[in-house]
Amino acid sequence: MANLITLLRIGLLLVGVGFIYSLTVVGQVIAFFLILVVILLDWLDGVVARRRGQADDVGAVMDILGDRIVENVLWIVFADVGLVPVWVPLVIIMRGLVTDAIRSIALTHGQTAFGERTLMRSTLGRWLVVSRMSRALYAAAKLVTFGYLILLLAGRLAHDQGWVFGPLLDNAGPMLYHIGMGLAYFTVAFCLVRGIPVMLDGWHYLYRREPSGDA
């Protein structure tokens, strides 16, 4: 069930992206609610997995995969429509590749990203990466940031397409843009900070070798 929710998230994400590229005000409003559901489903699939006893290694990998697809796709789309600089998705993608590579190698040694066998060894690392509070805060940051950027695009389109309230954005436009950039940069910084403990606690797995059976 949890994996089906992950697949549903990806499907709704693609529909939401389609509405973003409609470049209509109504399309952005629909996309806003779809992306809201996509992010909330991330919380739901974790709850379902725990209650059904399905929180296994495969489920954890699928959960991370779903998160990566949602984050990477949305940041790329936001950069493509001119809402954020192109370096933002590049940084997010590189960070994800590095941490997921380390997690994949750690998994071959029996260490998981989350749970009792997490590869995180430091107390700070466990709090920043594994704790439900940190994961909830990051989800909230994405929810607010992604939602705000979509509504910011809706406001731009309303202004350009001559909607009645469009002129109200003439003076507020720069301030609203800077708020959006502040949210985006905070979310990117939070993402990077949460990735640092994974690199520090898991880096040694890159150099570990399984003992040879020829001894």
Explain how this protein is built.
The protein is mainly alpha-helical and 215 residues long. The model is unreliable at 211-215 (pLDDT under 50). The chain has helices at residues 2-20, 25-51, 57-80, 87-107, 123-130, 132-160, 169-202. The chain starts with a helix and ends in a 13-residue tail after the last helix. Helix 2 (25-51) packs antiparallel against helix 6 (132-160) and helix 3 (57-80) packs antiparallel against helix 4 (87-107). The chain is elongated. It has a domain at 64-206.
Briefly characterize the structure.
The chain has helices at residues 2-20, 25-51, 57-80, 87-107, 123-130, 132-160, 169-202. With 215 residues, it is mostly helical.
Shape: elongated
Instruction: Give the mean pLDDT.
Output: 83
Summed up, the helix count is 7
- Poorly predicted runs are 211-215
Major β-sheet, in short? none
Helix content: over 70%
Say how many strands there are: 0
Structural class: mainly alpha
User: What amount of the residues lies in strands?
Assistant: under 5%
Q: What is the CA-CA span between the terminal residues?
A: 45 Å
Order of SSEs, N→C?
Answer: HHHHHHH
Determine Rg (CA atoms, Å).
Answer: 20 Å
